[in-house]
Design a protein that fits this description.
The structure holds 2 protein chains of 2 kinds. Chain A is of the alpha/beta class. Chain A has 14 helices and 7 strands. The radius of gyration of chain A is 26 Å and the shape is elongated. In chain B, strand 11 and strand 12 (253-257) form a beta hairpin. Classes of the chains: A alpha/beta, B alpha/beta. Chains A and B meet through helix 1 and helix 8 of A and helix 2 and helix 3 of B. The structure holds adenosine-5'-triphosphate (ATP) and magnesium ion (MG).
């Protein structure tokens, strides 16, 4: 291992890249496009049902179920049943990407029957006023409807179901765009090295560049490290652009911490090596591209890139946990959103171990020269 | 170690045929060896085996006393290679390329001086993808020299170059030899081999069909010296009959093959005595090109055409 050689090769890589204005333009503009696209589609809040997390402490009593189904029928909210500890309900909402939540208290049905006033507890996020307004309107509207039906029998119309002023979900509240940033950083950590390394593995072989390099003292490991260095650099720039664009365009609030750095290093390390390995095992450029896609596409969608994994159906969550990118994105969620260092360390460990293994395999199997 | 390159029983088999069919040769340190042959003869295959880029099927190969395939890493620090279709990073300039190789080899050459040597200074800041074919080839040569190689492998270094560029490459090759380096050169150009090479090997269908210095090859495979008369066909018949020499009519000339140049005096006397009118004569002996055509097949502009299978 020789730093001078790695640096010399790195300079060639950087120059080649910077002198390709089209590629350069796209790699800088692409992160902004991604953020703008997904941010606009999914975090607008205007129109469409707001996802309302509901915890029913009245054990699915007929009255509570009737209330929720009426709520759902407003089409203003989409009721999703959750089962969080009441004490941390607010934090859990934030962690799982809900901007509105509702608790139906135990004894709801009995209170209704006895005409004892009962409180529904609504949680909203001041950061998403549109969603908050929509949910509050729906919850109080249906509450009034129930009140009218239930109690206005004898002339006095004392409301039974009351909806006090909504509680704030607390300071740890995250909206879609907050999740989107680590997800999209992960997306580019995966895709830009995978696609180009698979391509390089076959085109350098075809053009005789590998043969040419095999005639110099540059080793395969040094060559791969130089590529990795380049993608690490590119990832830092991309992450910076994405965080900036997310904050600037959508008011995303993510924490920029040193804890992010390990992920911006081990992530590209893993996927540059994986791309090289995929390009190496393939015999032809076509099969290389195919293998690359087979590896990349499931990860691209199922690792929490565009949607938090916790919102997936259980089966897909299991799948997500075997995908390496999941640990990159989960780790970045931990450091950028939840300040959960312990879990982030676990994630970075998983990725680092995988990266070392895949790097070793790639160096072992990829050949400068034709072995026939 | 007297031999820089030593090849014994080397053979390379692709799927169904022997591209290199059990060849032997050696190249002395400090000499220029030209490997001549038509397209598909097996030159590049042999060269790449010597460079450690391909694996042989059979036989033994030593370059600087190393096995090129297994000791490639050590060998490559001591040899320079310019492949037949040299390619490089599109966006990198010759100057940067030389600096890059200098760092990789740890030799820190002066890019300008090195590029001057291959006559490429004027393009030292142009990107590779804007260079002409010949300029690319010159960069390949410059890169092959960044590590002060003991042995240089040049696979058709002058193919596609204009006459002036070819001459400047020849100058580089002569200088390499003067510096005591060994040069292994493949070429289609007989002139090149004749001018530069100490030893020549002619390969055809994977077999070496002639080897030695250009003179030795001509002596071994060339026809004998000939007297060519501008004279009527009857002269040929007259000479065969009276002197018993081999005389024939070729393209309207009378061609008499000589066993020895000394025979010419006797023949000229006989011609004069015959009274048959004649206008003039030349003597002609085979050059490498003639030998080549006889051994391998026709060619054009000094470059070989593929030979007809034997
Ligand atoms: N990788 C390969 N697989 C199969 N056949 C090959 C391979 N490489 C070369 N050949 C065949 O081996 C023979 C010798 O090829 P080689 O490249 O050594 O010829 P050459 O003498 O260098 O020709 P040229 O003057 O055209 O460069 C040719 O018939 C060629 O088609
Ligand atoms: Mg060739």
């Amino acid at each position: 291992m020789n730093g001078t050689r790695i640096f010399a090769d790195f300079k060639v890589v950087v120059r080649s890249y910077l002198r390709n204005p089209v590629a350069l333009f796209f790699s800088l503009i692409f992160p902004i496009i991604l953020i703008a696209l997904f941010g606009t589609i999914f975090s607008g809040g205007g129109g469409g049902a707001v996802s309302l997390a509901v915890e029913n402490l009245d054990h699915n009593s007929p009255a509570s179920v009737a209330y929720l189904s009426a709520l759902n029928n407003t089409t203003l909210v989409q009721v999703t049943m959750v089962d969080y500890p009441v004490s941390s309900f607010s934090a859990q909402l934030g962690d799982n990407g809900y901007s509105v939540g509702l608790i139906i208290p135990a004894g709801f049905q009995a209170d209704l029957a006895n005409r004892t006033p009962v409180n529904l507890t609504l949680f909203t996020n001041p950061e998403s006023p549109a969603a908050a307004g929509q949910a509050e309107g729906a919850v109080t509207g249906i509450a009034n409807y129930f009140n009218l039906r239930a109690v206005c029998t004898g002339g006095s119309c004392a409301p039974v179901i009351q909806v006090p002023a909504p509680l704030n979900i607390g300071s740890q509240v995250y909206t879609y765009i907050d999740y989107l940033i680590p997800g999209l950083i992960g997306f580019s950590i995966l895709t830009s090295p995978m696609f180009s390394m698979v391509d390089i593995a076959s085109s350098y072989r075809k053009d005789g560049i590998f043969r040419e390099l095999s005639l110099t003292p540059l080793t395969k490991a040094e060559w791969l490290l130089s590529r990795i260095s380049w993608y690490v650099l590119l990832t830092f720039v991309t992450a910076g652009i994405m965080i900036g664009a997310g904050a600037g365009l959508f008011g995303a609030r993510v924490e920029i911490t040193l804890g992010l750095i390990p992920f911006l290093i081990v992530g590209p390390f893993l996927f540059v090596s994986l791309g090289m390995l995929a390009g190496t095992v393939a015999k032809t450029p076509e099969s290389a591209a195919l293998i690359g896609n087979i590896i990349t596409f499931p990860m691209m969608f199922l690792s929490g890139t565009f949607f938090a994994v916790s919102m997936f159906p259980a089966g897909l969550q299991v799948v997500a946990h075997v995908l390496p990118l999941y640990y990159v994105i989960d780790g970045m969620d931990q450091v950028m959103l939840f300040s959960n260092t312990t879990r982030a360390l676990g994630d970075v460990g998983v990725v680092a171990i995988l990266a070392v293994i895949v790097f070793a395999l790639a160096v072992r199997f990829f050949q400068w020269r034709d072995v026939q | 170690m007297a031999h820089a390159i030593e090849v014994r029983g080397l053979a390379k088999r692709y799927a169904s045929f022997w591209a290199v069919d059990h060849i032997d040769f050696s190249v002395d340190v400090g000499t220029v060896y030209a490997f001549l042959g038509p397209n598909g003869a097996g030159k590049t295959t042999t060269t790449e085996i010597l460079e450690g880029l391909r694996r042989s099927t059979e036989g033994e190969v030593r370059v600087l006393d190393l096995d090129p395939w297994t000791d490639g890493y050590a060998l490559h620090k001591r040899v320079g290679v310019i492949p037949q279709d040299f390619r490089f990073f599109d966006k990198i300039t010759p100057k940067e390329g030389v600096e890059y190789y200098g760092r990789l080899f740890g030799t820190r050459p002066d890019p300008k001086a090195l590029l001057e040597r291959v006559d490429l200074v004027d393009k030292m800041n142009s990107r590779f993808d804007t260079l002409s074919g010949g300029q690319k080839q010159k960069l390949g040569l410059a890169l092959a020299l960044t590590n002060n190689p003991e042995v240089c492998f040049l696979d058709e270094p002058t193919t596609g170059l204009d006459p002036q560029a070819r001459r400047s490459i020849w100058e580089v090759i002569r200088k390499l030899k003067r510096e005591g380096r060994t040069v292994f050169l493949t070429t289609h150009y007989l002139e090149e081999a004749e001018l530069l090479a100490d030893q020549v090997g002619i390969i055809h269908h994977g077999k070496i069909i002639a080897a030695g210095s250009p003179d030795e090859i001509i002596r071994a495979h060339g026809r004998s010296e000939r007297l060519i008369f501008t004279a009527p066909a009857t002269l040929a018949e007259h000479l065969s009959r009276t002197l018993g020499v081999a005389a024939e009519v070729v393209d309207g000339h009378v061609v008499v093959s000589l066993d020895s140049i000394r025979d010419s005096v006797r023949i000229l006397n006989a011609v004069e005595a015959s009274g048959i009118p004649w206008d003039g004569f030349v003597t002609r002996s085979d050059n490498l090109e003639d030998v080549f055509v006889r051994l391998v097949g026709p060619m054009d502009d000094g470059a070989l055409k593929p030979g007809v299978p034997a």
